[in-house]
Amino acid sequence: MAKLAPSDLAQVLSKLPTQNGENIIVGFEHSDDAGVFRLSDDTALVLTVDFFTPVADDPRAYGRIAAINSLSDVYAMGGRPLSALSIVCYPQKGDWDVLGEILAGGQEAMNAEGDVVIGGHSVDDTEMKFGYAVTGIIHPDKVVTNAGAKPGDVLILTKPIGTGVDRHAETGCERLYRHYGFRAFGPRL
Questions:
Q1: From CA 6, how far away is CA 134, in angstroms rounded?
Q2: Percent above pLDDT 90 for the chain
């Protein structure tokens, strides 16, 4: 499951009323990793949501990856995660032990970072998807946005570039082949 193309999404979002407010530090018009909302002169919330189809064969690993991915959006903004709500799309007739492993892996990763999972929402879906809505905290003057990079800034890579692209391309090819009987990108990746 890929994200919508930013240019297409921008066309849709541009037709919505602007969300004005003196307490909105980072809103959807910035296309950033998370939104930031000022609560006081020294406290702001960092809010994000992220979920996706399985990227690992091991359910517990999938849960951990989903959690770490969701947490990374808060960290990218300079924030500290506080709490999370899980988002589960899972087949009603699916294996409940598998779902339990996904949730356990996610909760372990969240708890390891000092974040607590306080609830969530689930829907019956034939295609499994999992992730989190994460709330973090930050000082309003310490927010880091993706628009603030300048030539000469240090870039710290936490994993090889392209690992997500490679994995999603592989699963996308598998899905196309399984459902339609053809390979979109030549040989199986």
A1: 22
A2: 55
Which residues form the domain of 103?
18-142
Q: In this predicted model, what pLDDT tens digit does every residue of 73-105 receive, in sequence order?
A: 999 899 999 999 999 999 999 999 999 999 999
Residue 10: count of CB within 10 angstroms of its CB: 13
Domain count, the chain: 2
Query: Cα–Cα distance between 58 and 44 in angstroms, integer?
Result: 36
**Interatomic CA distance for residues 151 and 137, integer angstroms:** 28
- 183 and 137, same structural domain? no
Whether 12 is covered by a domain: the verdict is: no
99 within a domain of the structure (yes/no)? yes
- β-pairing verdict for 116-124 and 80-90: parallel
pLDDT tens per residue across span 100-139:
999 999 999 999 999 999 999 999 999 999 999 999 999 9
The whole model's pTM is what?
Answer: 0.77
Cα–Cα distance measured from residue 114 to residue 46, given in angstroms and rounded to the nearest whole number: 15
Question: Exposed (0-12), middle (13-18) or buried (19+): which is 50, by Cβ within 10 Å?
Answer: buried
**Predicted confidence (pLDDT) at residue 172 exceeds the cutoff of 80:** no
Whether 47 and 135 share a structural domain: yes
Number of CB atoms found within 10 A of residue 142's CB: 11
